[in-house]
Amino acid sequence: MKHLRLLLPILLAFTANIHAQTESVLRNLNRVQISISGVPDKDRAMITNEYVVNSQGLLKIPYIGNIQATGLTCSQLQERIEQTFRAKQIFTFPVVICKASEEGAAIRTVTVGGEVRRPSQVPFREGMTMYDAVTAAGGPTDWGHMKQVKLIRGTRETQHDMRRVAADPARNPPLNPDDKIVVPHR
CB-hemisphere CA count at 13 Å for 141? Predict the structure, then answer.
């Protein structure tokens, strides 16, 4: 029995190590489901959510801010979040569970920049058009030049007059994942 008590921690550590080796590493734009327990209900409701690893490899978690996620497994991320909550003396005994959504599949995006109200990467969806993406980024600012909106696909760049889309929807180009749209300044 005494030998079993000594062997059990070694066996558990070995099993955890095998599990960590088979876990996939998080990358930029991965979706991650974070849930927490051992904290007040209102805090649990605020923190438990699906997050996206941003293009800098960070997750923005309420109360603690940005946490480096790229290059970590979910197990390592769980531990890092728990340690940060404890180190900042926010929670004493948080228990974090991390699960990569859809086996860590990255969200496909379209980047919208220039003179739009919220320059950002917007989630791509099938059938999305250039007008849809500009609208998802808050629409043009007062200085946005909608007559010469650029669509960059790989190394190819085209210009489009988005003012004519209402009259002729055929002028509203469909988008592909990873397209970039730039609304220039007038």
Answer: 15
Helix, strand, or coil (residue 152): strand
Separation in Å, CA 45 to CA 42, 90, 122, 133: 5, 15, 25, 30
CB 184 within 8 A of CB 145: yes
CA 75 to chain centroid, in Å, comes to 18
Cα–Cα distance, 173 to 15 (Å, whole number):
52
* Interatomic CA distance for residues 121 and 181, integer angstroms: 10
- The model's pLDDT over 61-74, given as tens digits with 9 standing for 90+, comes to 999 999 999 999 99
Q: Report if pTM > 0.90.
A: no
How far is the C-alpha of 36 from the C-alpha of 42, rounded, in Å?
A: 11
Task: Tell me the two tokens of residue 93.
Answer: 């005994």
Residue 180: other Cβ atoms inside 10 A: 19
User: Which phi and psi (to 5°) does residue 118 adopt?
Assistant: -135, 80
Percent of the chain whose pLDDT exceeds 90: 54
Distance CA 48, CA 35 (A): 4
